[in-house]
């Protein structure tokens, strides 16, 4: 199961790395990939993860969480 998270504020590879690192700490996230140009991250999930957890991870990384789709 994959979900796309819309994020504002990432501007380079370093930002992408911060975001991936935080998202991959979430229980249920198998892997994450972030794209600063697109302003999004894609997470591969092994189970349902509450949207609030994505929001917390994105904010912990230092960026603005918009939504999950
Ligand atoms: Cu950056």
SSE blueprint and pairings:
Blueprint: E1 2-8, H1 13-23, E2 29-35, E3 40-45, H2 51-61, E4 64-68
Antiparallel strand pairs: 1-3, 1-4, 2-3
Bound molecules: copper (II) ion.
Protein name: Heavy-metal-associated domain-containing protein
Organism: Halanaerobium congolense
GO molecular function: metal ion binding
Structural overview:
A four-stranded antiparallel β-sheet has the order 2-3-1-4. The chain has helices at 13-23, 51-61, and strands at residues 2-8, 29-35, 40-45, 64-68. The protein has a single domain (2-68), classed as Alpha-Beta Plaits, CATH 3.30.70.100. It starts with a strand and ends with a strand. The chain contains two helices and four strands. It binds copper (II) ion. Residues 11-12, 14-15 line the site of copper (II) ion (CU). The site of copper (II) ion (CU) has 4 residues, from helix 1. This is Heavy-metal-associated domain-containing protein.
CATH class assignment:
Alpha Beta
User: Which quaternary structure do these chains form?
Assistant: single chain
Instruction: Give the fraction of residues assigned to helices.
Output: 25-40%
What does the overall shape look like?
globular
Mean pLDDT: 98
The parts where pLDDT drops under 50 for at least 5 residues are: none
Query: What's the domain count?
Result: 1
Protein name: Heavy-metal-associated domain-containing protein
GO molecular function: metal ion binding
Domain HMA: 1-66
Pfam families: HMA
Features:
69 residues; alpha+beta; Alpha-Beta Plaits; 4-stranded antiparallel β-sheet; globular
């Amino acid at each position: 199961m994959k979900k796309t998270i819309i994020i504002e504020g990432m501007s380079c590879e370093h930002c992408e790395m911060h975001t991936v690192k935080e998202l991959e700490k979430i229980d249920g996230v198998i892997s994450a990939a972030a794209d600063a140009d697109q302003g999004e991250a894609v997470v591969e999930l092994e189970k349902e993860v509450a949207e609030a957890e994505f929001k917390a991870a994105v904010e912990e990384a230092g960026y603005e969480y918009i939504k999950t789709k």
